[in-house]
Specification:
The structure is a homodimer of 196-residue chains. The first copy, chain A, is mostly helical. Chain A contains 10 helices and no strands. The model of chain A has no long low-confidence stretch (mean pLDDT 93). Chain A binds a DNA duplex (30 and 30 nucleotides) through residues 6-11, 14, 36-38, 41, 46-53, 57-58.
Chain lengths: 196, 196
DNA sequence: CGTCGATACGGACCCAGGGTCCGGATTCTA
DNA sequence: TAGAATCCGGACCCTGGGTCCGTATCGACG
């Protein structure tokens, strides 16, 4: 219930300020967990009360940031051209979807990290995960000969988890393009198997 | 450096007591994060100081518990009979390894969960992950026609992440055997692809 | 068996950080 | 422009991980 927006001018201005400041902070700081709520409030020039009233709790703020960043991709997936859009043939669309997720996580490492570990609630009860999963699953179901599409969707998405991506990009020093190629290759292999 | 064991009788006794108590607590409580260090100390009949001296920090305690539980599997993998042991043919061993990991996580849900989210440090910098990964990778490399074995090993292991397993077993109500079958099927598909 | 140095014990204590509260300021409505 | 509704913000609370240090215990040695 702490989610409904206010129409009061100062409220929306502050909400905006917080979003902007938080975005900047997460981008600048090394690890997402050393950007504290007090930091965000201070950076936004706002009191903690305001911050929490606007977003409920830390997870709420993260979700809001995440949703904003995700918006363009959501658009591209829902109404865009192939291979991301709904008119693409399933075998092309699956790798494209995974690639989009991967790129998103590469571009928003800290944020995705912060949201996925989140201290307590797993990413699997987040609604945005649910969306990706059911979409991917639906696409997989259109590919003949594939079984266990629900599980397969989970397993494929698991390969794009933020901390794995972070690990590979960070300690592993794997460049972006290589990682994309590997994921695409992996997805292809999963889809490829005809009768073995 | 807070890791070297003591030989003093009371010290080992207390260490044992803590391990036992913690094990019981994690098994009993719903979520791993509402078993606090103070709880563990109290349940073990020991002061917090003792607890922290013996294990360094929370992660240290988790690691110790984990290692104890993992020991039999490690044995089976390193010196046991096929299909888990080193003499098994790679195409059989990969699914077997994954199955072993999955079963372990099913049998130790809370513990694995606690260790993998761990608040801060990702599971990917844990040494036990490193071990599974390099083993799996080595086995994959023995399979002709497979490329990107490093990444593939990561991706396969990602399908056994504790929170995913928890999600599937919990909200998804997927029975153990079905999950094992799905994972095996998935692994098989990944390995199956000849020239596409 | 008594003494003594080394080691461990344990709970009071510290601190960070998420989240709450409420008196006062601001904004909308009439 | 009065009054009500809403919002502001920072002082405050609380939980939980981690530390400290005076005291109790251990075990080696005489």
């Amino acid at each position: 219930m702490p989610e409904r927006q206010s129409s009061r001018k100062d409220a929306v201005r502050n909400r905006e300020a917080v979003l902007t400041a938080a975005d900047a902070l997460f981008a600048r700081r090394e690890s997402p967990e050393d950007v504290t709520m007090a930091d965000v409030a201070a950076a936004a020039g706002v009191g903690k009360g305001t911050l929490f009233r606007a977003f409920g709790d830390r997870a709420g703020l993260l979700r809001a940031l995440y949703a904003a960043r995700l918006e363009p991709i959501r658009q591209a997936v829902e109404t865009g051209p192939p291979p991301l859009g709904p008119t693409a043939p399933p075998r092309d669309r699956v790798p494209a979807l995974l690639d989009a997720v991967l790129c998103f996580k590469l571009d928003n490492r800290r944020l995705a990290l912060a949201l996925e570990e989140g201290g307590g609630n797993s990413p699997y009860q987040a609604e945005h995960y649910e969306r990706w999963h059911s979409l991917l699953r639906a696409v997989l179901e259109q590919i003949p000969g594939l079984t266990d599409c629900d599980f397969t969707a989970h397993a494929l998405l698991a390969a794009t988890r933020a901390d794995l991506v972070e690990h590979l990009a960070g300690e592993g020093h794997i460049p972006r393009e290589r990682m994309r190629a590997q994921l695409a290759n992996f997805a292809t292999r999963v889809l490829a198997s005809g009768p073995l």
